[in-house]
């Protein structure tokens, strides 16, 4: 395995490859904060350059584990393969903007096994947790993470528990749960609990369950989740004949996927697989646009939003996005935009 350590993108500290959910120096225990999400996985690039090239990848099956050297799972026996990844890069031709520019593409992530891109990050994070001895898998979610984790647990043959929230930001306010996701998660054999309480209380309960029962909660493996998101960037470049696009627009909640995708592009550039890097833009809904507010206000660290509009979809109704995503936007020369409901429907 070529993964060497966890790295904090805020303070620069390095840590062993464990289930460290956040940097102990930068994060705020029991509180929502952008600095709770600053960790990424570091790799031995010198060794990777001598092991992997584009011709080698071309002969492998499509999917998440096509890029296994660039993922943090040492033992192949723990690579849980749902068939995630290998999704189509569709060229959009009907948009007026597409006729004015060279090309606009869309990555069709809805074709992943459980219907969302979350199969990538959870597939990797759960595999790492199992390699570290997890006896079961658990998560707090408003939907897609729970479906992905339940599917991975079923494939791996381990028990799973999902705390299904009505909203990412309204855990203690009796927000209605997503019935379709409840059915999907249950179909994979996971036990579903619909808790009431603030997020701080629920995370404290999660940590207790993990400590006392040996079950791994996915939020404690978030650095490895962004590693799964890297594979989106790998596929985009490979599908474009090893060229990076000029810009990438990423629908973002906490921004873990945006950070992971940026990591993927930078890793390919450092390995010499691509010659240039894209600009990365976060796209968030009006009323839950922590990154866009921070970007417009030139904040050093995204601040906690005072309230979330009730019409914001539960999976993206986060009061704050991660610092790692904000740093990815800054480093890439990108930015953030907030879009209205009507704009989303029109798209």
Compact description:
This protein has helices at 45-49, 54-58, 96-100, 119-131, 144-156, 179-187, 199-213, 222-239, 256-271, 290-296, 323-332, 341-346, and strands spanning 3-8, 14-15, 39-43, 89-91, 105-107, 136-141, 159-164, 191-193, 215-217, 247-251, 279-285, 335-339. By secondary structure, the chain is an alpha/beta fold.
Structural account:
Helix 4 (119-131) crosses helix 5 (144-156), helix 5 packs parallel to helix 6 (179-187) and helix 9 (256-271) crosses helix 11 (323-332). It is globular and about 50 Å long. The strands form 4 sheets. A 4-stranded parallel sheet has the order 8-7-6-9, with helices on both faces. A 3-stranded antiparallel sheet has the order 2-1-3, covered by helices on one side. The protein has helices spanning 45-49, 54-58, 96-100, 119-131, 144-156, 179-187, 199-213, 222-239, 256-271, 290-296, 323-332, 341-346, and strands at 3-8, 14-15, 39-43, 89-91, 105-107, 136-141, 159-164, 191-193, 215-217, 247-251, 279-285, 335-339. The chain has 347 residues and is an alpha/beta fold. Strand 7 (159-164), helix 6 and strand 8 form a beta-alpha-beta unit. The model has no long low-confidence stretch (mean pLDDT 89). It is 35% helix and 16% strand. Among the domains are: 118-217, Rossmann fold (3-Layer(aba) Sandwich); 244-346, 3-Layer(aba) Sandwich (Rossmann fold).
């Amino acid at each position: 395995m070529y993964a060497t350590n966890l790295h904090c993108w805020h303070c620069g500290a390095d840590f062993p490859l464990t289930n460290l959910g956040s940097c102990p120096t930068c994060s705020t225990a029991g509180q929502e904060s952008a600095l709770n999400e600053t960790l990424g996985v570091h790799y031995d690039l010198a060794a990777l350059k001598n092991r992997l090239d584009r011709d080698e990848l071309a002969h492998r099956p499509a999917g998440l584990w096509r890029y296994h050297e660039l993922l943090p799972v040492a033992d192949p026996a723990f690579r849980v393969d749902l068939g995630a990844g290998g999704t189509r890069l569709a060229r959009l031709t009907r948009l007026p903007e597409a006729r004015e520019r060279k090309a606009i593409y869309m990555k069709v992530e809805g074709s992943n096994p459980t219907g969302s891109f979350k199969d990538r990050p959870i597939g990797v994070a759960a595999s790492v947790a199992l390699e570290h001895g997890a006896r079961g898998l658990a998560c707090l979610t408003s939907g897609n993470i729970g479906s992905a984790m339940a599917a991975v647990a079923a494939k791996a043959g381990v028990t799973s528990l999902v705390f299904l929230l009505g909203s990412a930001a309204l855990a203690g306010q009796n927000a209605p749960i997503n019935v379709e996701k409840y059915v999907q998660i249950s179909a994979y054999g996971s036990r579903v609990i619909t808790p009431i309480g603030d997020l701080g209380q629920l995370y404290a309960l999660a940590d207790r369950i993990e400590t006392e029962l040996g079950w791994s909660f996915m939020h404690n493996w978030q650095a490895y989740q962004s590693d799964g998101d890297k594979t989106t960037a790998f596929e985009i470049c490979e599908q474009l004949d090893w060229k990076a696009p000029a810009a990438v627009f990423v629908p973002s909640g906490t921004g873990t996927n945006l950070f992971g995708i940026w990591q993927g592009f930078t890793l390919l550039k450092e390995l010499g697989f691509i010659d240039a890097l894209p600009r990365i833009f976060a796209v968030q809904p009006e009323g839950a646009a922590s990154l866009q507010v921070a970007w417009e206000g030139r904040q050093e660290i995204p601040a906690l939003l005072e309230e979330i509009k009730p019409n914001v979809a539960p999976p993206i109704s986060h009061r704050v996005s991660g610092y790692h995503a904000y740093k990815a936007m800054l480093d890439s020369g990108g930015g953030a935009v907030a879009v209205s409901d009507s704009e989303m429907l029109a798209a």
